[in-house]
Amino acid sequence: MLAAGCRESNEESGDAAPMCGNENDPTAPAAVADGVYDHPCAPVDGGPIDEFIAWFSTADRDALFDGAVDRLAAGLTSDQLVAGLYIAHVTFSFHRDEHWRLAVPSAQRAGGHGTAHHELLPLLWCLRRTHPDAIGTSVCPAPGAAADPSAAALLRLQDALEAWDQPAADAALVAALRGGQLPTVRDVLLEYGSRTHDWIGHTMIEATQAMRVLVSAGNRGAEPILRGLLRTMMRGSTSSSAPFDANRKRLLLLPDDWESGGADEGATLELLAELRTADDEGAAALAAQMLREGVGPRAIWDATRPATAELTLRFTWPQWIKFPLHAVTSNNALRLAYDSTCDDRLRRLLVLQAVAWVPLHREKAIEYLPSEPPPGWEIDTLEPTGDVSIPIETLLDDADLDRRAGVAQALGWLRDGGDPDVLRARFLELCVGYTFEEHELKFPIAALEEVDAASPVFRERLLAAALAYGASTTNGLWTGHDEALAALARL
């Protein structure tokens, strides 16, 4: 779940009505306790989150695990740990901090998926991985804007975003947040997070990850979290927003009942085939036509999932790590944003942007490809090769050695009666214990969330395709793994 006002998919059908309310009113400012903590964005909560951020900014690297566990033992919750770790990386500007912090919400979810490891182990990996060598400039202090609960503050924010004017957007954002307009600000930022494909989708990925952290923080820290997102959003270019501009016009042509249609395997496969060759304009035009003709948005998402997943089979190292991998994670981010909002116009835009981005990722991979890959990468016709007799450990290690062959083998294993829950659990156990870098947490969580959101007919192939990237025993346990477990054993 991202935030208040979200859509929760039924695990079997994926269908749901928008849920636009929340028991905890996000418009009410979160209470901040008394306390003085030495970091530029204080106060966040005047308590455990602020204390964690202040400690983390100066802690010795070798003391991180014990220091975090000491705080957990004293009452710091896992949600507060997530919030503190993420906010620390927007409170201070560290080298590559935008990228590192994006793994934090994924690490929280990886620890909660029933692996054999301690559920907090991935967060301790993030703690050590993201600890800075030096502190840079802070995103704080915020502009001295007065609270503005009016629609004018939101219009100023939108106008500034349209003009790529970061100082004006920053001031309007702060005024609207202080005026209690977090839910609407959230939708504005989700919209403009989808504006540009620059940085291979990371702006949209950060938008949804930031919203997840807001949930963990109980909406505390909204100013530094969303101002950090705004800083990232302003690094795009006007030339890269052409699909966004076209889809904002295209969405107006959809009928009022555009969401009434359901899953449609035939339409999904037709759009999937188109996404292999079409440009962003042609792909989005076809999707819009389908929606006008009664095809449901579920069928569109069912096409973008395999379309992005098969890019990881089509393109080999090193091309696919940059573009196909982020095709999967940014499609996941767009879909999460779509499910989380009750704004009909925004949902129209996000589904069309998801379609338009697939060709952009594909074209980037082709740009760097030295030669056309061998045939047989189409996910809907990939031939299964394995069977259930293959040990689960061998199955995943083989996938690490030869991605396409490993996925085909996993598909055969599943088709022969292999338990998908066993495959998922082993996959996540490796990601938690053998993670080498951030994508080995971000990609598996995004890929598995799309498996769960897909129509049942597509889940088996998407689950097998998820093995296209992730940690394996060939990495070895991550540095500090045993030290982190020893610290957690004190809880």
Describe the structure.
The chain is mainly alpha-helical. It has a domain at 243-328 and 354-367. Helix content is 59%, strand content 0%. Helix 13 (265-275) packs antiparallel against helix 14 (280-292) and helix 15 (297-314) runs parallel beside helix 23. It starts with 47 loop residues before the first helix and ends with a helix. Mean pLDDT is 88; it is low at 3-29.
Notable characteristics:
491 residues; mainly alpha; 59% helix; 0% strand; globular; disordered N terminus
Topology (SSEs and partners):
Blueprint: H1 48-58, H2 64-73, H3 78-91, H4 97-101, H5 103-110, H6 121-129, H7 151-162, H8 166-178, H9 182-193, H10 202-216, H11 222-233, H12 242-250, H13 265-275, H14 280-292, H15 297-314, H16 319-322, H17 324-340, H18 344-367, H19 392-401, H20 403-415, H21 420-433, H22 439-453, H23 456-466, H24 481-488
How would you concisely characterize the structure shown here?
The chain is mainly alpha-helical and 491 residues long. The chain has helices at 48-58, 64-73, 78-91, 97-101, 103-110, 121-129, 151-162, 166-178, 182-193, 202-216, 222-233, 242-250, 265-275, 280-292, 297-314, 319-322, 324-340, 344-367, 392-401, 403-415, 420-433, 439-453, 456-466, 481-488.
